[in-house]
Amino acid sequence: MEIRTEYGTLAVHDDVLAAIVQSVVLGVPGVVDVGVFRLGEGLGDIMKKDPAVRGIMLEDTDAGLVVDVAVIVAYGQRIPALGREIVQKCSDALAEAVAMRPSRIMVEVQGVEQVQDGGKAIQ
Question: Which of 34, 47, 59, 113 sits most deeply, having the most CB atoms within 10 A of its CB?
């Protein structure tokens, strides 16, 4: 992605933006983990993908940056409130890091897990 400023053009790789978003998402209380997009991918494709960008898809459109986030949430969380918090924190983090807000952030809840008091998912 390229961002034009008064000083020139800033080029930021999508993996950097995805890593920022993933870091923010995993820091939101109630999010257990990020999900996986494209379950039809082969195992080799999934293994090659950097874990720092798993669960995050970015698309640069004419309207601006579109961010898709796949999450697994803790049982008992209010999903609409959690989704709003994820959207707000991701938007703020990207605005701070690269001085632009995404045109759209979509949060897909792919699962719910029971979590112990220590924050670890129950197997």
Answer: 34
- Give 89-107 pLDDT, tens digit per residue: 999 999 999 888 999 999 9
Q: Which of 14, 9, 4, 7 is nearest to 65 (CA)?
A: 14
Whole-angstrom Cα distance, residue 108 to residue 96?
24
CATH code linked to domain 2-113: 3.30.70.1350
pTM equals: 0.81
Domain spans in the chain, listed from the N-terminal domain onward: 2-113
**Amino acid identity, residue 75?**
Y
Place of tokens 């999450």: 71
- DSSP H helices, the chain, are 14-26, 43-48, 79-98
